[in-house]
Amino acid sequence: MNRVTNTARDQLRSIARRAMLERGLLPEFSAAVLEQTDAIGKPAQADLSFRDLRSLPWASIDNDDSLDLDQLSVAVPAAGGTVKILVAIADVDAIVKRGSAIDVHALANTTSVYTAAEIFSMLPEKLSTDLTSLGESQERLAVVIEMEVGSGDGVVSGGDIYRAVVVNHAKLAYNGVSAWLEGVAPALAQMPSVAGLDEQLRIQDRVAQSMKQLRHQHGALSLETVEARPVFDGDLLTDLRSEKNNRAKELIEEFMIAANGVTAKYLERKGFPSLRRVLRVPERWDRIVEMAAGLGARLPSRPDIMALEDFLVKRRQADPDHFPDLSLAVIKLLGRGEYVLELPGHQAEGHFGLAVKDYTHSTAPNRRYPDLITQRLLKTAIEGRPVPYTSEELGELARHCTEKEDAAAKVERQVDKSAAALLLETRIGDEFDSIVTGASEKGTWVRIIQPAAEGKVVRGYQGLDVGDRVRVKLVDTNVERGFIDFAKVASS
After folding, report:
1. What is the pLDDT of residue 358?
2. How many C-beta neighbours within 10 Å does residue 472 have?
3. DSSP per position, 283-324
4. Whose CA is closest to 92, among 124, 59, 128, 63?
5. Positions in the chain short of pLDDT 50
6. Strands 51-52 and 156-167, how do they pair?
7. By the 8 A CB rule, do 429 and 458 touch?
8. pTM higher than 0.70 for the full model?
């Protein structure tokens, strides 16, 4: 593996900060934010209206290095073969008050920005990784989303939301939990000290898998993405390592999707508006149909989520090695999600890829501003107070959050490309297998596998479209601009 100079992290950090400023994002906290943060000396405290749920065996499951812990989960067996799944969400609003200097900064960016060299947190780290994080062994306030789920069929038959005091008894990581669930790793280090943790994880896994199966029966798409994460040795960038989905990630994903559904229905039941997360029916369905035909399958001429899911399941079975490439192409063609305002009595479009109609974002208030807005709506609804935002304000917030989320994603992609350019700058002339990930008037892009990198086809792009597999040669890199240029290799 070729290594780049030891200034890689600083170079990427500088690129990230410049990219944020160019896209209207704030890489630094203001003096007012820092002063306000310094004045906060302890986490928010509970009063008698909070339920005391500290004794439940709560645990978090996140990335190995995550400290901004937004949610905990626990399973409680109930009558009739059902299981109560409780998801505790960090009560960020208890400290970050609307209109405060900290809140104004969070609203400006609306999301944490995760780049290869640095994480630009939406909230100061004193809060997001400590005072508003559900850290291990810490008493914290939470908004608890309670769901009653059939352990065998995955049906959510009831839900409630309330405020509580909780304690995270075990900070767990996706890879470790998944390896243990799949029987390829020994007991987790926390198991001897947290009574019943092993059984907790098995129950939660079983319920999550039944929920996943039910969603896919309703047409949720079986997509397998490969996420590339930077690998540093000190300040030396050595690789972009691909990480696939696993069983523990599926567990959390299913619980969060269900919790967001319960949240949306709760607000609707209370007569409250909400910010819904929607993925509209794809405009480039015709290209998805064309890709399927190229693989010997037939899809209807009009968007049909059940037919697409059936096609994806069969392709995963037929060609698992290339399924992530197909998934990436489909994701690109489906387009990006957006936030929209839903008023009581009106029905938003829903989320095409998840096969759900009632869906909001509520489970990551340390990292996403729409979740903080939803938390404020929830707490107000719980307490029986009037809606804290006007419809006009919520509509503008939905538009703003969509715009800033898109800007943050572009920054992350730009820095990823710069990191990849660093790794590839000594490999000019090398050839790679690739898949076309974008094709428009602006250009044609491909992704190579190792390292996981995306670049532009500057020669031989005519006739290429999303999903095509093509052999390319690296012809140029530009680290500062994040450019990686390829030429199509002529067929022999």
Report:
1. 65
2. 23
3. TTHHHHHHHHHHTT----SS--HHHHHHHHHHHHHH-GGGHH
4. 128
5. 1-5
6. parallel
7. no
8. yes
